[in-house]
């Protein structure tokens, strides 16, 4: 898949699929303590669009755009700066806006106030701006307001292809505002300790809140705490735009925990939607650990079809063939590994044993469980390529 993506870039040149950029909304209230809401609205709208298959730049991309243009995150941008950051990041549409806190309505004196959100969608390709999208409701209903704004934005960009309002909102039950605040403060935190604290609080305050579960799962994965990572990642909802990525790392966590059946199930789910070479390779590794040689060989071959230059795919195929007693085919694979990496002593040794038709020896730790898994996951590149090829 990586090779296909590179070829698409080379031959398509400036041809790019339409991509949306969602900026933090500007705080027009008098309270700076509500600044976090602007980031929250942007994250919610971005997630709404991404979960329905639109290409949307993530938060890291946006921060990179700010850095390139020397813009201060959190500052209100001029119309010209909004256009500039969109052009800098090759976005087709930019969603931005502001929010303000109004007095609580008379029929709800317990409310902390009414929130009015005004959003704009700027079409950079045709230099035009859509009519304003407005949400108005109690501050405590922030999550519901954000979800409805996400649907309005989706309908504006996808038209009749967008799901119905009822269907969309039913799949996104409201989240407690204190949970949302803790999650966003975690995103804005500068230290891992602060991030962990806020994300944990968010997940504790609303057990159905998916986003902090993904963040906590990835953090535990990076810390090699695979058991805890699996627990968090399993809680990521299907409507979460990070769902497939969560399943990928759930599969890896289960793999390293020795739950190869669970790992195979997770990788199968991802492979059906995003058949990246890395996913197919890991699926093969899980199948091999379950002694499903035929399934593993088929998966490794699919990974090689996408990227025949990767020596790890050749190694995994050769290793599985060798364990299955298919020595001639194993020789071919191990030779391909050595041709790409002469320093791979493990492949060289197994090449020699394949030539001698010297198979596995039970209990030999040097030749047990040698499958090589991949830990990189680039769904965005796959989605971009699919969108470009669909033009």
Describe this structure in words.
The structure is a single chain. With 391 residues, the protein is α/β, with parallel strands linked by helices. The chain is built from 18 helices and six strands. α14 packs antiparallel against α15. The protein is elongated, with a radius of gyration of 24 Å. 41% of the residues are buried. The N terminus is likely disordered.
Concise synopsis of the structure shown:
By secondary structure, the protein is α/β, with parallel strands linked by helices. It is built from 18 helices and six strands.
Spell out the key features of this protein.
391 residues, alpha/beta, 6-stranded mixed β-sheet, 18 helices, 6 strands, 57% helix, elongated, disordered N terminus
Percent range for β-strand residues = 5-15%
Helical region count?
Answer: 18
Structural class determined from secondary elements: alpha/beta
Summed over residues and divided by their number, the pLDDT gives a mean of 92
* String of helices and strands: HEEHHHEEEEHHHHHHHHHHHHHH
Report low-confidence residues grouped into runs of 5 or more.
Answer: 1-15
Report the span from N to C terminus. 18 Å
Helix content: 55-70%
Major sheet: size, sense and barrel closure? 6 strands, mixed
Query: What's the β-strand tally?
Result: 6
Shape: elongated
| CA-atom Rg in angstroms | 24 Å
Per-chain topology:
Elements (H helix, E strand, L loop, with lengths): L1 H11 L7 E3 L3 E2 L8 H16 L7 H10 L10 H10 L4 E10 L11 E10 L4 E2 L3 E6 L3 H17 L6 H6 L6 H12 L3 H14 L4 H13 L3 H8 L9 H14 L3 H14 L3 H13 L3 H14 L4 H13 L3 H14 L4 H11 L23 H11 L2
Parallel strand pairs: 1-3, 2-3
Antiparallel strand pairs: 3-4, 4-5, 4-6
Helix pairs in contact: 1-18, 2-5, 2-7, 7-8, 8-9, 9-10, 9-11, 10-11, 11-12, 12-13, 13-14, 14-15, 15-16, 16-17
